[in-house]
Design brief:
The protein is 36% helix and 16% strand. With 399 residues, the protein is an alpha/beta fold. The structure holds zinc ion.
């Protein structure tokens, strides 16, 4: 269904702007009027990462007048494989600064508002309220739910995308016009239950496919052309090179935009199912009771020959691709998914203590709890291999 333009047209274009945007002006449904709307538009991009990068570049090139960029991160070498607004010289800089430079290189007149912060319950509403629409390329669930909640409360369209490995999804959530994010994804997964790109990897160009769809949707919404992806979830499989469209509907009982909504609750509450429902409280209690070693202790144990298999065994519960980047020498390997399904630790001798590690200590913590429940003397390596690289051997690669 076509919808009226989101943004009223701004001032007349200058002669230079007519030249610059000539290919837009030639489009019958965009034209001068549409370009003036783009010039007047205020678009917030959450995350200057894999999805935010292509979206920012195309929004800038399209002549969007004001672009807000939310990111609290700094540019890391591992970002460069897909986050194309950042270059080698930007490593170590704030992502918002690097993104602002990239936008200005294309469109010097675009005003960039840097929000070098992670949105939280206290700030999200005020930030989102200052924009006509939001492009959400966040890499974590709490931010997605928070942004979804803020957009739904304000009635702001929430152009959302996500990518993982060779797959992507994209939709436009818009409370009042169609489903909001929480209508379709009512429950936030527990931390680390869903693998992230940082763990499972992502093909860089898939970010461009999804990010450019997000930019296209933004232009359509601002100018009122075509049919936005409201009520439709686009699912992309880059390996089969397919795009499937799934109809999605608003949930009348939605806790964010439906009858279950409660305006007095804190923003982002939908991020959390109460702890006693989703098991968070149990997980917290288990974490407190979980035996652990830090990487310094682990290094000493390795040096003393304690991890010889008979007294102690090192166990990596990460995925194969992660091991290809960096792994501790020796030990056993059993991905956490196999631990969940009850697989036994390869090479485990009776009485040996198992020192379990992953990337940061979260998946290994789950594995320790599962193994201990089966009677295995398992111990978590706090901070995982990233802590090892940071504190024991900084010459190793990281990811
Ligand atoms: Zn909803």
């Amino acid at each position: 269904m076509a919808r009226p333009p989101l943004v009223p047209p701004g001032p007349e274009l200058t002669p230079d702007e007519r030249t610059r945007y000539a290919r837009h002006l030639l489009l019958p449904d965009v034209g001068l009027d549409g370009q003036r709307r783009l010039r007047a538009a205020r678009v917030l991009v959450v995350g200057a990462g894999g999805l935010g990068s292509p979206a920012l570049l195309y929004l800038a090139a399209a002549g969007v007048g004001t672009i807000g960029v939310v990111d609290d991160d700094i540019v890391d070498t591992t970002n460069l494989q897909r986050q194309v607004v950042h270059g080698v010289a930007d490593v170590g800089r704030a992502k918002t600064e690097s993104a602002a430079d990239a936008v200005h290189a294309i469109s010097p007149d675009t005003q960039v508002v840097q929000h070098s912060e992670r949105l939280d319950e206290a700030t999200a509403l005020a930030v989102v309220a200052d924009y006509d629409l939001v492009l959400d390329g966040a890499d974590n669930f709490p931010t997605r739910y928070l942004v979804g909640d803020a957009c739904a409360r304000l009635g702001v369209p929430h152009v959302w995308g996500s990518v993982y490995r060779f797959d992507g999804q994209v939709s436009v959530w818009w409370a009042g016009e169609g489903p909001c994010y929480a209508c379709v994804f009512p429950h936030q997964p527990p931390p680390d239950a869903v693998p992230s790109c940082a763990v499972g990897g992502v093909l860089g160009a898939v970010c461009a496919s999804i990010g450019s769809v997000m930019a296209t949707e933004a232009v359509k919404l601002v100018t009122g052309i075509g049919e936005p992806l409201v009520g439709r979830l686009l699912v992309h499989d880059a390996l089969r090179q397919t795009w499937d469209v799934l109809p999605v509907a608003a949930d009348p009982g939605c806790r964010v935009c439906g009858s279950g909504a409660d305006p007095t609750r804190p923003l982002g509450w939908a991020t959390g199912i109460p702890a006693d429902v989703d098991g968070t409280a149990d997980a917290g209690a288990a974490a407190l009771a979980r035996p652990s070693v830090d990487v310094g202790e682990l290094s000493a144990l390795l040096g003393a020959g304690e991890l010889d298999g008979s007294r102690g065994l090192l166990l990596d519960v990460r995925e194969e691709g992660e091991r290809a980047i960096v792994a501790l020498p020796g030990g056993a390997w059993l991905p956490v998914g196999d631990v969940r399904t009850g697989a036994s630790v390869p090479g485990l001798e009776p009485g040996a203590r198992v020192y379990v590690y992953c990337k940061t200590g979260v998946r290994s913590g789950e594995a320790v709890d599962l193994l201990r429940a089966r009677g295995v003397d398992a111990v978590n390596v706090d901070g995982g291999i990233l802590a090892w690289v940071a504190r024991v051997d900084p010459t190793l690669p990281t990811y």
